[in-house]
What does this fold into?
Amino acid sequence: MIFSKKRTKTEDNGLNVIPNHLAIIMDGNGRWATKRHLPRTAGHKAGSENFVKTVDECARLGIKYLTVYAFSTENWNRNQTEVDGIMEIMRSYIVKYVPILDKKNIRLRILGDLNYFDEESRNALIASVKKLENNTAFTLCIALSYGGRHEILQAVNRLLAEGKNEVTEKEFEEALYTAGIPDPDFIIRTSGEERISNFLLWQSAYAEYYFTKVLWPDFDESELRKALVEFGKRKRRFGK
Ligand code: FPP
It folds into this structure.
């Protein structure tokens, strides 16, 4: 549970710099399941359980924003059974955890194109975001039906529709799904793949990256700590 554990010196040894905004590409659920001769959906279930633990751990460590890549625009092309399985996990997550997130004073943002969802799921997502919008302890952003290029294009089209023909960086950022959210400082990708895969393309301009072979369901507190220790060693210059 959030804040139930005290931040002890030994446990958090080496965590001298904590990112304000951590983003995670939660990759490797499928391989985790295949290794165990389980259906891919079992990997997503294990991945979603690990996601719940990670939210608590990030809040405990004093990270203020966590963004997770849960489902990309391209993921809609996976086989229907797998897509249905992920959507089912997402719906039960909303039902079970929104009241818990509320108790923990956690704000929720969904980054992505909600038009792809059926009406019931879309309404449930919108209602959850609304219910939690005034919470202040921590912001959880779930990238769902998200694609970085898609996000940039929808921002351009929105600004054109408003009649703009020239915009500042600030105005452009306000038209992105992440409006009002600071850029990610640190982006972790699990499972050994070393690419961005259309994630936060605009926002990651100065992010530090960390790649690990560990599959997402196995990326536990100690793996997170290892990643954060590495973040603490990076010299960030922002192009200066
Ligand atoms: C990547 O692993 C993972 C996904 C495409 C889905 C992630 C979804 C969840 C963790 C559940 C979402 C639920 C909530 C509530 C956020 P992969 O399937 O690409 O794995 P592979 O690369 O090993 O095949």
Observations:
- The domain at 18-148+184-233 is CATH 3.40.1180.10 (Undecaprenyl pyrophosphate synthetase).
